Amino acid sequence: MPMTSCYMWEPTLMDKIYIAEHRVITRLAEKGPCVIVGRVADFILSDRNDVMNVFIYADPEVRVQNVVKDLGLDPVKAKREIRVIDNHRAMYYNAISSKDWGARSNYHLLINSGTFGDDLCAEVIHQAALNFEQTQKE
C-alpha cells in the first residue's frame, strides 16, 4: 500500500506581510502612475519596464540631525534608532529580494537628500521620471 506524505506550508508573519504588500503594490501599479516608498516595490515590480526605481539617502550626520529635529530624540538615541531601522529595512529587503538593500545596481537614480534638500530632490526625481517615461515610449 503506497504511503503519501503531505507537507502543509504555514506562512510566517513576514510571508503574510509580503503577500499583502505584493497584492497592494501590483494593483496600484496596474491602475497607473504612482509613487511607492519602500516595501521592496522595486523587486515586486521588477517584471515591468515602466517602473523607475529611486533610492534617497543622506550622510549619517544629516540623518541624525533630521531625527533630532523631527522627533526630538537626543543624538545618541537618534543614531541608535536609525541603525535599528536601517538594519530592519536591509534584513527585510535582502530576505525578500535576494539582493542588497541600497545597492546602486537596484536603482535607476540615487540622490543625496542631505546635499540637495527635500524640495530639489523632489524636483530632480520628477524631471527624471518624466524623462524616464518618455524614453520608455520610444
Structure description:
There is one protein chain. The protein is mostly helical and about 140 residues long. It contains five helices and two strands. It has helices at about 15-30, 40-45, 60-70, 75-95, 115-135; strands spanning about 55, 110. Helix 3 packs across helix 4 (about 75-95).
- Calculate Rg over CA atoms: 19 Å
Distance between the termini: 63 Å
The fraction of residues in strands falls at 5-15%
Shape: flat
Which class of secondary structure composition applies to the elements? mainly alpha
The parts where pLDDT drops under 50 for at least 5 residues are none
How are the strands of the biggest sheet laid out side by side? 1-2
Q: Tally of extended strands?
A: 2
Order of helices and strands: HHEHHEH
Helix content: 55-70%
Number of helices: 5
Largest sheet: 2 strands, parallel
Mean pLDDT: 93
